[in-house]
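Incident log, structure service

09:12 report received: a user says their structure output differs between two submissions of the same chain.
09:20 pulled the input from the user's history:
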Amino acid sequence: MNAVAVSAARPRPFGRGGLWAHTDFLRLFAAQTVSLFGSEITVIALPLTAVLTLGATPAQMGLLAAASKLPYVIVGLFAGVWVDRLRCRSVLVSADFGRAVLLGSVPLAAVLGVLRMEHLFAVAFLAGILTVFFDVAYQSYLPELVNRDRLIDGNGKLEASKSLAETAGPIIGSVLLQIAAAPFAIGIDALSFVLSGLFLRSIRTSTVPRPTCSRAGVLSEVRVGVLLVLRHSILRPIAVCSASMNLFYQMLAAVYIIYVTTQLHLSPAAIGLIFGIGSLAGLGGAVVASPAAERLGIGMTLILSIVVSSVGALAILLVHSSDLFAVATLTAAQLVLTFGIPLYNINQLSMRQAITPPGLRGRVNATNRCLVWGTMPIGSLIGGLLAQAIGMQPTIALAGAGMLLTCLWLVISPVRSLTARKAAALADLA
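09:34 re-ran on a clean worker, output below:
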């Protein structure tokens, strides 16, 4: 494989304030934070629009959830090639502005009285395509802004902002939903993408497009990224584990909102409270991600995070009413479920960023996303169809048990014994 041009500007140095003194990192941090606040409102508002405004069935809810994830299967691998060829910042900005237009069409259609499930399917699918490009570019961009030894710190801070957004966003969303109909709350998310795009455009660090010297064709470039992931002793089991985890998690997510709405009869405000308070644990998981990896080893930290999240998923089955105990129990379940997610994501993402050569990050991230997120629409469809066929509680039970079993992929692989020292040695070989 021919050489790939490196960044036109190396990651900028920063002073005693660490990454908080790194101007371009702060702009990236601000962009993510503001867009995530809006997106967390949509996490509740979009399915509630389908259920409360359009009367969606469980099967339709599964299709809606699948529509936003299907693009990872269709365009995921090719997105990595283009991200490696183009400036990451340009991809990020274009994706943000495009999603703003798509989401803004939902409240507009509601005002005009023409909102239909087909519209929601289309918005979810098209926004999903832009999200594919954004996510691949986003994961490839951080190593261009900061030095390798700051990746875990940077990912931890970004994950912490995500956790804060996941805490405050649903609470703000629940208040908005008490004031206005669900479709109009989605307009806040559209505005957040505009602001995010403006923050990203203000980043000054510039990188050149990946050059033509290695372009033997799109399929050949895709093949390089796929083979690297599939043949790597660390990247492969983590990708397979993540893909399996997302399959079962999406089975749960596809039916959760409709379950607590139609069977437990919880109000939008209660649902927002559960998501908001429950997401506080994500901040804790982000904070302890690095210390846990240092103390327990990266492998054991990843395994433990899966077990913790699975227990939270299964705890949902303890609730059978809509009283205060139900809200408290579901909030506790959300706390446990959420705690394990950043604990897992920060460590596996930082490892992948560190051990992947700069000219291959887009394709490796895209391959990983395609494998990991490609199972999500399948999980959503299975969840919706199973809920329609056997009921929502059995579907939740199967999803929780499946999540727990996915840690076996790591237990039987070299990842189990992976420590910070071994990880550093692998990074030096990149």
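09:41 both user submissions now match this output. Likely a transient worker issue. Closing.
09:42 reviewer note: The chain has one domain: 19-203+220-428. The chain is about 80% helix and 0% strand.
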